[in-house]
Amino acid sequence: MYGINGSDFPPVTEDTFCKYVLYYEINNSRVRIWDLIILIPNALFVLFLVVRFNKAQLKLRATSSPIFLTFYSLVWGNVIISLIRCGVSMTVNASMPFGGLVDKILWVTVRFFLLATEMSVVIFGLAFGHMDSRSSIRYVLLATSFISLAFTITQGTLEIVMPDDIFHIDTRDYDLFGHGGMLFWFTSSLVFAIIYFIILLLPWIPLREYLALPTKLSFYLYILLLALLDTTQAVGAGLLAWGSMQSGLCVVDVTTWLYFSLYTPLVYHTFLSEFFSVSQPSIMFSYKAQMDEPMEDDQVSLPHQQSFSSLKTDSDYIYQQSNSVYDSTLFEAGGTTPMNPVYSASLQSPDSIVSGQSIETGPPPAFHTQHIPST
């Protein structure tokens, strides 16, 4: 029987190491290497977010678009729940029934948040690209949350009721988190991979004429990375289910680490880094918008701020001008809509109104020259 200290490792080969790394504890401290290598990149990313928090807060206050705040909140939620999972897994004894159950529930919870974010990004980009209202965002988040909840409940049920023998540790007689089993893992990864490849093909098929597809390259690079990740994960799960267990386990170890460690930074880099780093961020998704559609009441908001180079006071943001009410959206329109001159003038800062420039509020000239005959 192999011990768990550094003095009596089992023979280390590529195949056995891929399973051993999942449960090896550092000096019997309950700190598993697997949790540690996932914790470190998430902790570094949290440190990055904290350092840039003040600047991010200022720019979020300066924009009227709720999409940026939604993505920023999802990023924070994902990374915080990941840190919680790693921390709790390092304190409970996973070889005990209660500790193992807690560990699996935390894994499923993290998967719920990541999957909800993953689907929300795609839906914002495809189905609701021409909208930037709070109500549409709520509908999208609610729909993706229900789908993600159904997925994770199924995964968690399979994990608890039918644990996969591949992730059973004989020396300690307990089961590692097996992602719902190899058949579920293979099927779900394959389905997501097919969906992402279909999205990549949309700009090249005749159906594109009837869809408002994103035109920014960063969106399709994001989709491509997820498609490749899910494809590789499906191959690894298939090898575990029907082929060589050792080589398949090494594949899914890599894909699992990439997803649970680097997916959230990928979302931030793809959809938020440009917004937080430049004075006037470009549109996240570019679209050929339909300008004749009626706007919802909560879709009309203050124009997007044009400059972040001088961050002085809140009033500097509030009174900055814009040429179109659609500048506040993430989705670039094909044209602009003229703004009411009175509304445009109301957005000017009091300090910027030059003496002599004012809005005529008196009656029209016709009323000064027209005389109503007395009866």
Task: Please tag this protein with its features.
mainly alpha; 13 helices; two-stranded antiparallel sheet; single chain; globular
Write the layout of secondary structure elements.
Layout: H1 14-23, H2 33-51, H3 53-62, H4 66-89, H5 97-126, H6 134-161, E1 168-169, E2 174-175, H7 182-201, H8 217-242, H9 245-271, H10 273-277, E3 285-286, H11 314-318, E4 331-332, H12 341-346, H13 366-369
Parallel strand pairs: 3-4
Antiparallel strand pairs: 1-2
Helix pairs in contact: 1-9, 2-4, 2-9, 4-5, 4-9, 5-6, 7-8, 8-9
Strand content: under 5%
Order of helices and strands: HHHHHHEEHHHHEHEHH
Q: What's the count of strands? A: 4
Radius of gyration: 27 Å
User: What characterizes the major β-sheet?
Assistant: 2 strands, antiparallel
Q: What would the principal axes of the Cα set say about the shape?
A: globular
| Count of individual helical segments | 13
Please give the order of strands in the largest beta sheet. 1-2
Structural class: mainly alpha
Query: Mean pLDDT, rounded to whole units?
Result: 75
Q: Helix fraction? A: 55-70%
List unreliable stretches of 5+ residues: 1-15, 288-347, 352-361, 364-375
Distance between the termini: 115 Å
